[in-house]
Amino acid sequence: MYLLMSTSQNVDRIIRDFSNGRQQYAGAHLFFIDGLDEHLFERLTSSPAEPHLKALQELYINFWAIEAQAFTLRSPSSFFNIFSPPRSDTSFKPMRDRLDEELRFMSKMLTNVCLTLNEYPFIRYYSPSHHQPLGPLKPHASTRPPPPAETNSRWRTNLARGTEARAYESTVGDYVAKVLAFMVQQLLDEHKKANPDFPKPADPPRPRGTLIITDRSMDTMAPLLHEFTYQAMANDLLPIDDGTTYRYQFQTAVGAYEDKVATLSDADSVWTDVRHIHMREAIDKLMADFNQFLQDNAGFKGAGAANLNDMKDMLANLPQYQEQREKFSLHLNMAQECMAIFERDKLPAVANVEQNCATGVTPEGKTPKTLVEEMVPLLDSRDVVNTNKVRIIALYIQHREGVPDEDRRRLYQHARLTLAEQDAVNALVHLGVRISRQSGDKDMKKKIKQKTNNEEEYELSRYKPVLRTVLEEHVSNKLDPTLFPYVKDSPAVAPPPSSLRSSPAIQPAVSLRSQRPSWHKAARGASTQNDTRQRILVFVAGGMTYSEMREAYLLSKSLNKEIIIGSTHPITPQQFVDDLKVLELGGVGSRALPSGVGETNAPPRPPQEIYDQKFFTRDAPAPQRATPAPSSQAQEKKGFMRPSPVPSFAGSSGSVNSANYGMEKDGDKKKKHRFLRF
Fold it and tell me: In the chain, which end has fewer C-beta atoms inside a 10 angstrom radius, N or C?
């Protein structure tokens, strides 16, 4: 069995395993992580390997499911490809070509998500009116079609202007979400044409879903705010790698401390129970669950834990419940660290200013009139870290929709920001934010009105991500169709399913290729009622926040929909600020793209060539092994020369190269680890 990426090199390796008188295995079952290009499929089926191929399936799983309702493309460099401004007139064309390559990969991976979920969704995309397309998509003479020839001015209709005029004018509206949405629609339509039974009927039936594509510029406040729900706060304040790996000290039964590495995932029930609730409630729940655990399992007598320190002392006396002790100890440590930073960094005062800026109102619901008086002492204070000062200033400028240049300079002086930190605030202009404002400038028309939230119990958590409003208005059919147009058909005018059916494309040896993987279905349990909920898929190009991930879960319950959110990558406020610092430099020196966005003038390459380069792996070195005895060699040769018509599991392997079997296991493990990183 081969499990491999759909690259030209891997196809050549399979062919080599069964060419030149060599037959590596009795038969081969091929499972491609991605869809296989048609010319590679034809190369396989016309090669000497074809008689030995028992099955070929395209799994469409080239994306990373990081949570039950969240996925990522693991492409943090996309932020720079999308938003970094070309630094000269000659940079527009190469940067646009680079972005087109990036968007092709995104569209293919987004299509994988839809195919895996058996969804052929309606597609909506974010099309703002308050700014031009950003980054390399900004209209420029080198990247747009030539202007049409001047003709008689009496021709005024769209049809009469001709295709040249329409192509020239359309580039003004080429926002990144629009370009990506049309790419995804094209790929889904192509798959539908080749597989007319897609999507396969669900049992029980599920309404057709919607894919909403937006980008980070839709909400530039959410990545800067301090959040106080458990997961968002922990990822903001603690050194958690990639949102999942946390290192801490665990107290053993004998009182000694040892370093531990914990994985925060859906497998940790304590984590999933508290990650989306406010830190105060999370601590209360941790202690309540811990006290219940003592009563149920330890036969504990006496009073339970009244605070985090009591809980810490009691955990040391439960050596017989190692696994549960470690879970409680992990989250006890995380909660204590968060609260210590909360007090040390003056976050109550910082967050109050942030919330007033982001919501535009005070906790009493009035317009904030003393923001500067509250903000300047925090900017002057040496107890407030500079990153938090950057966040305050960036939020204040957005609240004011820009400030005079002199006022901005004074804010930088109060905060004693470095040049790089000043660049981070200034870079917001490349995300469509107005940072400089003159006396005659009018207020910008708000893209999406932030709803007043009267239900929020916590004053420091009043702001809700714009994405929440978008989802609520979409479900209630109130989302502005000019702000979020549909690519093709919309639910109101959707054609009946039968009209989507088209004749299948004729392909050679189609019987070898399975249209969709047949996933094992678990027995239906108590959650069957959720199986019929309509899906809403949300994709945020350029990074999603943990607060937006939280909203996907909360709104799934309140709106009775299955909302799945995805992005190029999850982001923390620190990462967002760091990326803004080097955005104007094209990402040079960043963690995701140290060398920056390339500006080579090479001609555009075919998609398969780019794909082959992205997922290239070297052949494993030839193994050193002793020559086997003649008798076993003859027996092995005889077995390989006559493949069994029945799939031979004993002789199968996950190899993707032509090295001998003795070393293929180790080489393949490395490849699979690189290909599949769930």
Answer: C
